[in-house]
Amino acid sequence: MAHPASGSSASAHMDAIYRRQRYIYDATRKYYLLGRDRLIGELRPPADGAVLEVACGTGRNLIAAARAYPDARFYGFDISAAMLETAQASINGAGLDGRIQIAHGDATSFSAVQLFGVEAFDRIFISYAVSMIPPWREALQQALQALAPGGQLLLVDFGDQAGLPGWFKRGLRRWLAHFSVTPRDTLADELEHIAAQPGLSVQCNQLYRGYAVYAVISKDPA
Fold first, then answer.
1. CA atoms within 13 A on the CB side of 29
2. Per the structure, how many domains does the chain have?
3. Domain span at residue 150?
């Protein structure tokens, strides 16, 4: 299934996919979106730090992170208005509407100031969204621009599954395609490119025999 590049067409496309899926999303995705809780456990934002989730979906990760780090402020955006509706209801239900702010935004062209009135974030995380954004390299660079000096961008997403049986990889990718999800086989290469940029360093690990890629990108202090 083709995924529009960005803008209103991408928003409508994601709404069409998740208009009904959002009600069962968290219950089903916990079995194969592996590494999300590790990422949350390793965020460790500074006291009163600002944390952003790119493509926050149902708000599941934001709620878990806000509970884990009660001294931090949390923000998230998504291109799907349907997902944001579910996220806001979940945030309100968790009693965290005073600590989590969400907005409608595009990962490839967002402005932190326009969305939230925040200049930069101490932590940014992207969980299984790179594989859903066709201009994913642009999304990574946009996130890095919003990262404060001394901050970290944490990322987890599907890997190349090189260490897994061929039948499993083929079946997984056929199934993921129904949701406009495309694992980025060159993600590790792009992370190496990012590591070569001045002021940035990258730690990257393959999880579960290549099922997923987990990375932490650190920006040097000012």
1. 23
2. 1
3. 7-219
